[in-house]
Design brief:
The chain is mostly beta strands. The protein is about 5% helix and about 70% strand. It has 1 helix and 9 strands; from the N terminus they run H-E-E-E-E-E-E-E-E-E. It has an 8-stranded antiparallel β-barrel. About 25% of the residues are buried.
Length: about 180
Amino acid sequence: MILLLAAMTAGTLKAQDWSLSTNIAAYADFGTLNAEVGYAFSRHWNAAAAVRYNPFTFESDGEPVQSRQRTFAAGARYWPWHIYSGWWLAGRAQYQEYNRGGIRSPETREGERVGAGIAGGYSYMLTPWLNLDLGVGVWGGLDRYAVYECPVCGLTLDRGRTLFFLPDDIRIALSLIF
């Protein structure tokens, strides 16, 4: 899809204010689908909105394994040199619904998280319209959760609210700049 859009706009680019990207590393998390759209509103700043979605449940030795999620995020990036090239720092607000279980034990944890995060990285220009973004981030906030004995039985082991601090957005992304 990115290459098709790039081919359609390659000869007509005047100002490259928009970006559309997908994080290849997120697909390693049980096939999590994702996209981010960004808009440059100055030489050093862009705003971005992202979504991640994973509806998949797999089986291992006849038992369900899942890392399902719906995540929505909005934030901004600061580019010290120039927009969409070189080093960047980012901040974002994020909301996530999740259901993760059967991976290391039969226990399943589900809930929703709301919080904020920071990230940093580098954007390498492959062509005038295609970038490779590398980065890493962390986020923290409030987690409202329930823990179940297994993914399908529904016996509740624990329920509550807690603060969290987690790695987030390990980024190896392809970005179309147009």
